[in-house]
């Protein structure tokens, strides 16, 4: 099954589909309502579940009276910890592909309340409205314990987490003596940072529609970033055979990490369907979207020391991040600070503090979106103290190797990002002094920052089926949460076999398809795309062999590398008039279909010798109203180095969306806890502010040329997360330039600007 194509298809030839701004192949379905989401699949007799959420943050349920709800005609059942069926005891049965170390949350397991809005009951009725009404008739008596949801109060008990889940690397050991170097530095800065909890807030709320079949098997329509992850979870928790559970998830209305772990509505819907032996849907309400994982609140300190010429002599970065009482959710927050710049004295420290909240959850560029802005704001402050241009300071300390590991980067075109981004923005026209670019009562400020994210790859398998009519269907059980996976995979397949885009379709979001990892970490193009390339390279080899074997054919004896694949033809490079269509080759060989499957495995050996990452330079302009403290981000230029860009149109959309989120993170987004209740107060779009059209102005995206043969066979690093990473810092730095105020607590709301 391991693909070893003799002649991989070259990707940079003229006419290549790769690199073309192809419009989304699923765009029409999406804008016409033809794309179906988890809560839109229907079946006769479908029952509807409504989740009852805990009113307290910590304690236990003493009594739960469901009699009134059950008495309503049309209510089928109310599930609680008291009447739930038997469930597994071992933690490992509840683990999923994104579970951190610890004990995963188990819905309806017992009377214990771990966090506010914890799901404590499920009402199942003939309609959603009836289930919701019945839920209000349920009376719960609690015994509340004191809760702790304040990270500042919990900070004193912070601890260093051990190594655990795949992606997490603890900070590297200190190098040199950063504290002494800081004390002796000619110029130094020492800043404290905080950033609020953010929720993912995808447009589509989490939902699962479980179709119950007479033989007890299930078809599960789930909102997920990994159908196989949901399938494994359901099979483990409910003790079902893999072939009795098929998870289908063709479209996801945004997720940003919220679908990396199976959410409790999936558990609830399967519980009800298997117990009641009928089809059930459970969909969360918008307020309930604040009842599970979130980007964790983090408290940070960054201290930098430098010589007068800007040479960094000390980097200290410390972070304390929240986790739950039951799991050690960890992110790589501080490690980037040892990687970004050349410096001999570096000390990085990362700790967790336990709160009575749900376990946090990966959210777009987890860790980097928090830690890198802290470093980049500190660099801006250092530049200000040195009287140096912030871009010059970064170039002064630029590094071609990863100082954490001394490994060279497989590629790092960050210099090109700086140059092209600065030129597009007009950075050289910036006046150095804060408050020097005023226009009337508007203070204009220009700021910049660097972004970084890992380039990762996992194993994946893809299948392909080529018909005699020249249509190709490729599939892999990945997801498309919005980045354009359908389109990019279609392009890769069409390119390698020389087929028009319209002749190729890509299938995903179905556990009947070959294995793919979770869609996350910006690794789908590298992982699944490499598998698609591998299987199409195999088909190409086989077609070439079939054509060469036709003794009376024009391509007799030619090798695969002596052929071009274009417009459905195999064409001799030596004389393009010697050609056969795919149909002719297959007909002559009595074949109606040609099928194959291939697994792509990362180039571990060469990857291990290198640091792999995407990089970016962000330039931002703000206008701050001096009287009102309001901020408009009037211009952003994001220059990105992410290897080969498969589709510049969808990739640009990724960066645009991420910049918008960066504006939100810098200025607006904040899930606020009422510490007395231990509960998020602003749990809807009325009070949780995200950027709207009026907040979004000019955003310019540049992809710089970057060639990389090590990162994966496509040379494509992925762009799902890099777009957000430096944005909050560039905006905070622009606000400093506009106002002279150094603000380090995100979001920077107008009260902070006026109050500072
Ligand atoms: Mo992303 S946070 O890896 O879905």
Structure description:
The chain has 756 residues and is an alpha+beta fold. It folds into three domains: 36-366, Aldehyde oxidase/xanthine dehydrogenase, a/b hammerhead (Aldehyde Oxidoreductase, domain 3, Alpha-Beta Complex), CATH 3.90.1170.50; 390-457 and 604-755, Aldehyde Oxidoreductase, domain 4 (2-Layer Sandwich), CATH 3.30.365; 458-601, Aldehyde Oxidoreductase, domain 4 (2-Layer Sandwich), CATH 3.30.365. Helix content is 25%, strand content 24%. It contains 19 helices and 32 strands. The chain has a seven-stranded mixed beta sheet with strand order 3-6-1-12-9-10-11. It has a five-stranded mixed beta sheet with strand order 16-14-13-8-32, with helices on both faces. A four-stranded mixed beta sheet has the order 19-27-28-31, with helices on both faces. A hairpin with a 5-residue loop joins β9 (207-212) and β10 (218-222). α16 (648-667) packs across α18 (727-739). The longest helix is centred in the C-terminal third of the chain and has 25 residues, at 524-548. The radius of gyration is 27 Å and the shape is globular. The chain binds dioxothiomolybdenum(VI) ion.
């Amino acid at each position: 099954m391991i693909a070893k194509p003799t002649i991989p298809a070259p990707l940079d030839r003229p006419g290549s589909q790769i690199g073309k701004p192809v419009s989304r192949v699923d765009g029409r379905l999406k804008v016409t309502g033809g794309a179906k989401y988890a809560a839109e699949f229907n079946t006769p007799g479908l029952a509807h579940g409504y989740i009852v959420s805990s009113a307290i943050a910590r304690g236990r349920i003493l009594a739960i009276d469901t009699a009134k709800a059950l008495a309503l005609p049309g209510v089928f059942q109310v599930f609680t910890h008291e009447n739930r069926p038997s469930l597994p005891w071992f933690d490992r049965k509840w683990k999923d592909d994104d579970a951190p170390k610890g004990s995963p949350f188990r819905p309806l397991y017992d009377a214990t309340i771990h966090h506010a809005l914890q799901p404590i009951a499920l009402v199942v009725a003939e309609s959603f409205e009836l289930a919701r009404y019945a839920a209000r008739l349920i009376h719960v008596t609690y015994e509340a314990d004191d809760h702790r949801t304040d990270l500042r109060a919990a900070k004193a008990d912070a601890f260093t987490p051990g190594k655990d889940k795949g992606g997490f690397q603890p900070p590297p050991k200190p190098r040199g003596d950063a504290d002494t170097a800081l004390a002796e530095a000619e110029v130094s800065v020492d800043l404290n940072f905080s950033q609020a909890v953010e929720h993912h807030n995808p447009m589509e709320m989490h939902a699962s529609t479980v179709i119950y079949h007479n033989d007890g098997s299930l078809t599960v329509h789930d909102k997920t970033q990994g159908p196989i992850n949901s399938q494994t979870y359901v099979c483990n928790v409910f003790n079902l055979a893999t072939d009795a559970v098929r998870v289908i998830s063709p479209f996801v209305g945004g997720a940003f990490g919220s679908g990396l772990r199976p959410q409790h509505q999936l558990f609830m819907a399967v519980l009800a369907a298997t117990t009641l032996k009928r089809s059930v849907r459970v969909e969360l309400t918008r307020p309930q979207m604040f009842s599970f994982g979130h980007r964790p609140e983090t408290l940070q300190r960054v201290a930098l020391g430098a010589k007068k010429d800007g040479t960094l002599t000390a980097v200290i970065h410390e972070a304390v991040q929240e986790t739950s009482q039951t799991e050690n959710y960890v992110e790589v927050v501080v490690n980037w600070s040892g990687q970004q710049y050349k410096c001999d004295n570096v000390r990085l420290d990362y700790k967790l503090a336990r709160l009575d909240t749900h376990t946090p959850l990966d959210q777009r560029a987890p860790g980097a979106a928090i830690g890198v802005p802290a470093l980049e704001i500190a660099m801006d402050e250092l530049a200000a103290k040195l009287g140096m241009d912030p871009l010059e300071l970064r170039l002064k300390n630029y590094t071609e190797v990863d100082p954490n590991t001394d490994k060279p980067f497989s590629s790092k075109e960050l210099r090109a990002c700086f140059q092209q981004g600065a030129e597009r923005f007009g950075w050289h026209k910036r006046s150095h002094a804060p408050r020097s670019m005023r226009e009337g009562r508007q203070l204009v400020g220009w700021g910049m920052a660097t972004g970084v994210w890992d380039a990762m790859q996992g194993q994946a398998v893809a299948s392909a089926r080529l018909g005699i009519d020249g249509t190709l269907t490729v599939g892999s059980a990945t997801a498309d949460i919005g980045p354009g996976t359908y389109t990019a995979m279609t392009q890769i397949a069409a390119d390698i076999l020389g087929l028009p885009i319209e002749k190729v379709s890509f299938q995903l979001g179905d556990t009947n398809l070959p294995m793919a990892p979770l869609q996350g970490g910006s690794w789908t193009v590298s992982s699944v795309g490499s598998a698609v390339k591998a299987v199409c390279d195999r088909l190409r080899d086989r077609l070439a062999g079939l054509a060469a074997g036709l003794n009376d054919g024009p391509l007799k004896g030619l090798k695969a590398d002596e052929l071009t694949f274009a417009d459905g033809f195999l064409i001799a490079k030596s004389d393009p008039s010697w050609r056969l269509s795919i149909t002719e080759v297959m007909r002559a060989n009595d074949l109606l279909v040609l099928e194959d499957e291939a697994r792509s495995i990362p180039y571990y050996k060469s990857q291990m010798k290198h640091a792999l990452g995407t990089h970016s330079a962000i330039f931002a302009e703000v206008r701050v109203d001096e009287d009102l403290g309001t901020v408009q981000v009037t211009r952003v230029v994001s220059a990105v180095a992410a290897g080969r860009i498969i589709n510049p149109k969808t990739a640009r959309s990724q960066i645009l969306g991420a910049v918008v989120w960066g504006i939100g993170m810098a200025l607006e987004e904040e899930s606020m806890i009422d510490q007395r209740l231990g509960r998020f107060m602003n749990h809807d779009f009325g009070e949780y502010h995200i950027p709207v059209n009026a907040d979004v102005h000019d955003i310019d995206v540049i992809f710089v040329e970057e060639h990389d043969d090590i990162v994966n066979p496509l040379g494509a690093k992925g762009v799902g997360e890099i777009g957000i990473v430096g944005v909050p810092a560039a905006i905070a730095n622009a606000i400093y330039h506009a106002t002279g105020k150094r603000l380090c607590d995100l979001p920077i709301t107008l009260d902070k600007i006026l109050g500072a």
